[in-house]
Design a protein that fits this description.
Layout lengths: L2 H9 L8 E3 L12 H8 L20 H6 L4 E4 L11 E4 L2 E3 L5 E4 L4 E3 L9 H6 L10 H17 L3 E4 L6 H9 L1 H10 L1 H26 L5 E5 L12 H19 L6 E5 L8 H7 L3 E3 L10 H8 L4 E2 L8 H4 L2 H10 L9 E3 L14 H8 L2 H14 L6 H6 L2 H13 L3 H9 L3 H16 L8 E4 L1
């Protein structure tokens, strides 16, 4: 049985033969900033060429990393920039995107610095120039389709088509500003409906061209639209159902006209009160599951929705991985075991968290950096301990006492060089965890990267 059958069995709620590991297989499980180059340098592979990408673009992880860690997933696609649009490069650190949003690079992210539709009337909205989907370069779509076809026919990787468009809600918040857009959702439904209609029209034209080309060669696809804050959805469930859901549901239904791929949706925050609606919209995998957000603790989610949807996430990166003790991480990982066979869950870090909330402190970060990968090891150990299947990662990385002794040997090494030499001789799990541990402690940069463990 290969990777793809394991993926299919997981999605069918059946027991797979091996654990699927996703690292950079979709735009929501990748690395940001300098973390990838730091990892490449540490492994002796040299830096990756290329500067910072515009907002919304995700650079493919270096194939050497993916092969080194024997990752099961690969991605194709991008968010497209039509040629007939507002796009204009201003400098190396500032540009205007296709929607007319001015974005400035601040060292880690591209921040929006204007709101082109703030205060716009209905007439001004109708007159505002949206990007022309027909002006997307056909050669870009063809290149992604060619890569997807090659991966589909010559490898056994699980292939994801990255989402080609932004979400309707987040786009409205960016173009109007959050305060203005949320005010309109409460008091100006006519304007909101017209905005969503125009965005959906754009989305569907891009979707048809994109998924017609890549659809036959992919196993899952994604979308991103943050519907919630740390404590609750941005709007009430009733308002979501009335204003947002019809357009989101139509986007997914239209996508599925052109592909049989499973559908992953990303929304940060506490979306607990919206999960039934997301399932009804056609979402089959939910990312990222931030356990520090209200009502988003994995055990409760599994109990309530484990038969309805796959959860992609669950290991906290806001507090646990950067700041917790080794015993706290171990306890959390043990708490994430699957006591009821037949449930579906991804175990991974909860959300993108490429840097800590405080300036790097070498002494503290060296100590913390040695703890994070222990959580990754714990997931694998627990899978084996509780008989959850013939997991490739658990079986190969920690066979009986031998694997554990080798891991402990790496931890007890007296120097980083000695640890590195031992990790290079280990299995893919030991190399991944070891690289994360040593990279963070040696460079004093909190990368918090973690592979995604897929569970049925």
């Amino acid at each position: 049985m290969g990777r793809r059958e394991d993926f299919a069995r997981t999605m069918r709620h059946e027991k797979p033969e091996n654990l699927i590991i996703d690292f950079g297989g979709n735009p929501l499980s990748s690395m940001e900033g300098e973390s990838e180059n730091k990892l490449l340098e540490f492994l002796g592979l040299g830096k990756k060429q290329g500067g910072d990408l515009p907002f919304g673009k995700t650079r493919r992880l270096d194939e050497r990393l993916l092969k080194y860690f024997d990752i099961d997933t690969r991605s194709v696609g991008e968010i497209f920039t039509p040629q007939d649009s507002h796009f204009q490069k201003i400098s190396e650190t500032e540009y205007i995107d296709e929607w007319g949003i001015r974005r400035r690079f601040t060292g880690l992210y591209w921040e929006s610095v204007n709101t082109p539709l703030k205060g716009a009337t209905l007439e001004e909205l109708n007159a505002y120039r949206f990007p022309d989907p027909d002006s997307i370069d056909e050669r870009q779509i063809a290149a992604h389709a060619a890569r997807a076809k090659e991966l589909y026919e010559t490898t056994d990787y699980v292939i994801c088509a990255e989402h080609p468009v932004y979400g309707i809600f987040e786009l409205g918040c960016w173009m109007c500003g959050f305060e203005d857009f949320l005010y309109r959702m409460a008091l100006d439904e006519e304007w909101i409906h017209r905005f969503f209609e125009r965005v959906l029209e754009y989305q569907k034209k891009v979707i048809q061209r994109y998924y017609t080309a890549v659809g036959p060669y992919i196993h899952y696809t994604s979308s991103g639209d943050d519907f919630a804050t740390q404590n609750a959805p941005f709007v009430s469930p009733d308002m979501f159902r009335e204003l947002v859901k019809p357009y989101f549901k139509e986007r997914i239904a239209y996508t599925k006209r052109f592909t049989k791929a499973k559908y992953l949706h990303h929304s940060c925050g506490s979306v607990y009160r919206l999960i039934d609606d997301l399932v009804d919209c056609g979402v089959e995998i939910l990312n990222p599951i931030q356990p520090k957000a209200a009502d988003m603790q994995p055990r409760g989610l599994k109990a309530a929705y484990g038969e309805k949807i796959v959860f992609h996430g669950g290991i906290d990166t806001q507090e646990l991985l950067p700041f917790a003790s080794e015993s706290q991480i171990e306890e959390t990982v043990h708490d994430h075991r699957d006591p009821e066979p037949g449930r579906r869950l991804y175990l991974c870090r909860g959300a993108q968290h490429p840097a800590g909330r405080e300036p790097a402190q070498p002494d503290r970060d060296a100590e913390r950096g040695a703890q994070v990968p222990q959580g990754v090891k714990g997931v694998c150990d627990i899978c084996k301990m509780h008989g959850l299947g013939g997991w490739r990662m658990a079986e190969q990385a920690f066979p009986a006492a031998g694997g554990k002794a080798e891991w402990n040997s790496c931890i007890s090494a007296s120097t980083w060089e000695e640890r590195n030499a031992r990790w290079w001789q280990g299995t893919r799990t030991e190399r991944f965890c070891g690289a994360s541990r040593s990279l963070r402690a040696k460079t004093h940069i909190r990368t918090n990267f973690c592979p995604v463990f897929m569970r049925r």
